[in-house]
Each structure stands twice: as structure tokens, then as C-alpha cells.
Design goal:
OB fold (Dihydrolipoamide Acetyltransferase, E2P), 5-stranded mixed barrel
Length: 223
Amino acid sequence: MIGKISGRIEYRTTDHVLIDVRGVGYLVYCSERTLAALPGAGQVAALYTDLLVREDVLQLFGFQTLVEKEWHRLLTSVQGVGAKASLAILGTLGPDGVSRAIALGDWNAVKAAKGVGPKIAQRVVLDLKDKAPSVMAMGGTMAQAQGESAADFDVIESAAAPAKPAASPPNASAQAEALSALANLGYAPGDAAGAVAQAAGEQEGADTPTLIRAALKLLAPKG
């Protein structure tokens, strides 16, 4: 299994990039958002990858963060959602947006992705709603893992600068900690995830205490 790639960008098109790793070129398919974040040809780049193995094809898919990779894995587990649709969803919403849309049951946001119809969007939200909290809870752990593994990406010539994947959203750890705190207070995972996702969307970059207070207000009985 090829889990991550680091090397020089040879070229890129509208849906993939060719990365040279010590003379071996890896063709990696990415979302529009990920492609737009990569440097130009001749520069060093690093991506987490997922390898699709079928009888007639081997395809690598690349992601800026481990959270994005995890959402791709979950999205493609939904019936009717292939790798192309998954990349379209991630390219439109980003991993943080996918977490928020699924936690809030906002299938219209998912439907905004190119090639994703209403039935598929609703299925994505219904099938993954119970899994959204677990991915959100991974945010802090994954952000730490990415920081600790940065040195692993320096696998090309020593003259090249070390390449690092893009950092996780600044409040990924805060969302995970807020979710954990609400769970400890007895709130159902789905309700807690929805409240944290909404609070994070309304207060971008908020720290853990701020997210907890905002989420508690959203969870408070109305009337």
C-alpha cells in the first residue's frame, strides 16, 4: 500500500498530477481544491495517498490531509459514490465542509458537487451521519500525527527542501476536544457533532472553550 508520496511535480492537468520520486513518476488523482493548493511544476510536493486496486486498473488518489483521506474512504463506501464523485464532493466542500454538511444533515451542500444528484447526496448524509462524530473526533489526533510525521516526507534529494502536506484546519483539534467534552456531558454523538459543526462554521478558528459554550447554547432546550 502506498500511503504517501513526496517528490517533484512534473506536470498537472485538471484532475491529476505527475510526481517524480527519485526517477519514478507517480500519477496521482486529486480534487480541484487539492490541485489548486499544490506548487508549480519543478517544485516539491507531498500528498497522502489511497491506492485503488481493481482487475483492470491501479489508481492513486492524493489528499492534503489525513482527515481528507479518511473522508474519501468513507464517501466511497456509500453505494453509488465512486472515487470521481468523492473527489468532487471534497473539492467543493473541503474535508471540514464535508464534516459540517453531514453532521448537520445538509444534503443540499453535498448536492452542490459536480455530478452528485439529490438521491446520492441524501444517501451520503444518511449513511455517514453516525460516522461524522468519529471523524471529527480524529481531528486533533490526526493534526498531531501530521506534525510528527513531517520528516517522513523528505524522501527525495537532500538538496530539495522538505515537503509537508497542508496543515489541518486551525480548529480541528478544538472541534475534537469540544466533541469529547459534550460526549462526557451525556449528549448523543450525533447531536453533539451537529452542534459543534454549526458552532465551528459560525465562529471560524474558535478555541475549545468557545466552541463548547456555543454548542451548549445550540443544544439547550428551546422555548
